[in-house]
Amino acid sequence: MILNDINFETYHKNYPDKDGYFGKYGGSYLPPELVAPMHEINDAYMTICKSSKFVNELRRIRKEFQGRPTPITHLERLSTKIGGAQIYVKREDLNHTGAHKLNHCMGEGLLAKYMGKKKLIAETGAGQHGVALATAAAFFGLECDIYMGTVDIKKQAPNVARMKILGARVIEVTHGLQTLKEAVDAAFDAYCLEYKDSIYCIGSVLGPHPFPSMVRDFQSVIGVEARAQFLEMTGELPDAVVACVGGGSNAMGIFSGFLNDPVELFGVEPLGRGTKLGDHAASLMYGTEGVMHGFNSIMLKDENGDPAPVYSIASGLDYPSSGPEHSFLMEKGRVKYDAICDEESIDAFFELSRMEGIIPAIESSHALAYGIKLAKTMNKGSILVNLSGRGDKDLAHVIECYGFRDGEK
C-alpha cells in the first residue's frame, strides 16, 4: 500500500529514521547526562534484536510464561444486538498479568539482563505497566521501582497491591495533578540519578529514541498474531481495526500488523467529561506540536505552552501527549483518530460484561465503545477491537462511581 508517498511495504525499515524521527515527530530531547545512557540502550537493543538467541528466548517466554498467542473472540451476542458489522476482539486481557503491557516489559527486562543492569525503573497510570514490569523484574531477578501518582494509587488499589506482592517498590508521586504525567516526571528524575545500574522502561510508544520504536516492536506481536488469526477464522481481513490511544502502545501493536493492508485503522482517545481543556486527554484531536518527556509529538498545552492538565476516567489514558508514530500516521492519513467520553466507555464496559461475560479495562472500553458506534454505521463487514486489558483493576472505582447500572449500589 502506498499512501501520501509512504510505501507501507517497507514502512518498518524506514521509520523511524536513524535519529528516531517519524517525519518531524519523535527524536531525542534529553538533558546532557542522559544522552550517553540512551545511546547505550539503543546500541544494545539494535544488537540483540538481530540476535537469534534473544529472539528465540523472547518467543519461549511469550509461549511458556505469558500464554501467547492470545485468542480472538467473536462477540456474537453483542453483534446481533447492535446490528450492522460483526465485532471481534483480540484478547490481550488473557495475556499474563491481564493486559498487553507484559509484551514489552519482558523484552525490556531481557534487554536489562543483557546490559548487566540491576534495577528496572518505570512509571504507571492504570497500574498495568507497573504490574507487568514488576512481574518481569521478579522473573529476571531484578530490583524494581514504580512511580505512581496519588490519584492513580487510590483508583487502582488492586494493582498497587499486586506490584508490592511481586516485590516492587511503589513510590507515590504527590506533586501536580498526581497522575501519569507527574509519575513520568518522577521516574525520569530517578533515572537521571541511577542510570549506571538501572534501565528506564517506558510504558508506551513514547519518550526519547529508541523507546517509541522499541516498544512498538515488542508490541507488534499483537498485530502479527491478530492478522493470521483473523484470516484463519474468517478467510478474510477485517474491514476495520480499532484500539484505544493514550500513549498508544496497544494501538501501535495491533496497527503494525495491518498497515500495508486495505483495512481502516481507528485510534480512540479519551474525551473524558467534554471538550474543555482539562476535561479530557484527547491530545491528537485537540493538541498542537510540542516537546515533552524527551520527544516531539502532538500535545495538549496550557496558556503558557506547557503540558496542560488532563483528565480521563481511564488512568492509563490520561496523558497530555501521544506517541510520535501516532502523530505521524495521523498526519499521513493512514490512521483515523476520534474520541469517546467517560459515559460511552462505561456503557460499553457493562455491555461487554453482561452480553459476553468479559469484563474489560476502562481503557479498552473506549475502543469497544467506538467499535459499537462504528458497527451501527455499517450494513455488513467486520470490526476487530483490541481488548487491551481486563477490568479487575477498575471494579471498585466503577462501582463507587456508577454502581451496578441496575439501581443497586
Which ranges are low-confidence, i.e. pLDDT below 50, for 5 or more consecutive residues?
A: none
Which architecture of the largest domain per CATH? 3-Layer(aba) Sandwich
- Percentage beta strand: 15-25%
The amount of helix comes to 40-55%
Number of DSSP E strands: 16
CATH fold description of the largest domain: Rossmann fold
How many H/I helical runs? 17
Rg over alpha carbons: 20 Å
Mean pLDDT: 95
How are the strands ordered across the major sheet? Answer: 5-6-16-11-12-15
Broad shape = globular
| Structural class by secondary-structure content | alpha/beta
Measured distance between first and last alpha carbons: 51 Å
Give the total of domains: 2
For the record, what CATH class of the largest domain applies?
Alpha Beta
Q: Mind describing the biggest β-sheet?
A: 6 strands, mixed
Could you give a quick summary of the protein structure above?
By secondary structure, this protein is α/β, with parallel strands linked by helices.
Describe what you observe in this structure.
The chain has 409 residues and is of the alpha/beta class. The protein has two domains: 21-62 and 101-213, 3-Layer(aba) Sandwich (Rossmann fold), CATH 3.40.50; 67-98 and 216-402, 3-Layer(aba) Sandwich (Rossmann fold), CATH 3.40.50. The chain has helices spanning 11-14, 32-48, 52-66, 76-82, 102-115, 128-140, 150-155, 157-165, 180-194, 211-219, 221-234, 249-255, 283-286, 324-331, 342-356, 362-377, 395-402, and strands spanning 2-3, 6-7, 21-22, 25-26, 72-74, 86-91, 119-124, 143-149, 169-173, 198-200, 240-244, 264-272, 288-292, 295-299, 335-341, 382-387. The strands form five sheets. The protein has a six-stranded mixed beta sheet with strand order 5-6-16-11-12-15, with helices on both faces. Helix 12 (249-255) links the parallel strand 11 and strand 12. Helix 5 packs parallel to helix 6 and helix 6 (128-140) runs parallel beside helix 8 (157-165).
